[in-house]
Amino acid sequence: MKIIIHGGFFSESNTNYEVKVAKQQALTDIVKQGYEYLRTHTALETVTYTTSLLEDCDLFNAGTGSQIQSDGKIRLSASLMDGVTSKFSGVINIEDVKNPILIAQKLMGYDDRVLSGNGAQVFARENGFDHYNPETPQRRQEYEQKLHDSIRLGTVGCVALDAQGNLAAATSTGGKGFEIPGRVSDSATVAGNYANGFAGISCTGVGEDIVSGAIAAKIVTRVTDGMKLQLAVEKTLTEVQPFDGFVGIIGLTANGEVYHADTHPYMVWACYDEGVEVFS
After folding, report:
1. Domain annotation covers residue 95
2. CATH code of residue 36
3. Within 13 Å, how many C-alpha atoms sit on residue 273's CB side?
4. Global pTM value
């Protein structure tokens, strides 16, 4: 059993030491909780649960504490993929909910498994997800002051390998901040979140770069075809160099390979594999 999570990127120049330490501690605590949950649950259940914990932590740009778009509203996106069934579900640009990953989980039982905008919100209300405002004072201040350097890149994600050898991946984001309303990130696409019976990948960074590189699906496909995870990641990330792609990934394979990488510093992540390892 293994689990790896990420908390997106942050700008070293605009993140003070206290915030850096707080993010490290939050990731450490959450990955421990996720691993304990994994002991008695499936990979799919675990990535959903762990990502919801990341969404609930306002240090990260997903769920509570998400970035505000150019029209002053928060819109959330999240997706879930089951490596056993190869089913993908997600919500795109949903408003006024607390945990978009839980709505993605609910959609797993439907034929129409990816919903956007108002349709996603209606589905959420019909299925018992109450109104919730994910805005925090810090995000409102950033929005009003237009602190572009502090709002660029943020997503959370989780990949888990359970005791039965099954994989799942989940990714959630509050967007990049100040984007055009309606902009779609990678987080609710197979470019940003993908898993099958061989590997699982969650991405963070600039959504447009991740989509252009088809990152998660490409890495998983290469592992499925026999490539080692590290080599598959490194080869895929070299392919975004011509356009200076801003990408970070976490990944696991069914044989227990764990890998993380980024094209630019500083992606924050944590892994539980017979102990906790945190990077920032």
Report:
1. yes
2. 3.60.20.30
3. 17
4. 0.93
Within a domain: residue 157?
yes
> Catalytic one among 51, 155, 171, 189?
155
Mark whether 155 is an active-site residue.
yes
Average pLDDT per block of 10 residues along the chain, 280 residues long? 92 61 91 97 98 96 93 96 98 98 98 97 98 92 67 80 98 91 94 98 96 98 98 98 96 97 91 76
DSSP labels for 99-159? -HHHHHHHHTTSS--EEEHHHHHHHHHHTT--------HHHHHHHHHT-GGGSS---EEEE
Q: How far is it, in rounded angstroms, from Cα 221 to Cα 200?
A: 10
Domain around 219: 2-275
For residue 101, the one-letter residue type is I
Count of domains observed in the chain: 1
- Distance CA(206)–CA(186), nearest Å, equals 8
In a domain, 280, yes or no: no
140: which 2 tokens? 């409102």
Task: Give the separation between CA 37 and CA 144, rounded to whole angstroms.
Answer: 39
- Using CA of residue 127, residue 133, residue 138, residue 139, what is the dihedral sign? positive
Indicate the burial class of 21 (C-beta count within 10 angstroms; 0-12, 13-18, 19 or more): exposed
Q: What is the pLDDT of residues 125-136, one digit of tens each?
A: 999 999 999 999
Q: Is residue 16 part of a domain?
A: yes
Residues 6+ apart with CB under 8 A from 166: 42, 43, 44, 83, 84, 197
Per-residue pLDDT of 184-225, as tens digits, reads 999 999 999 999 999 999 999 999 999 999 999 999 999 999
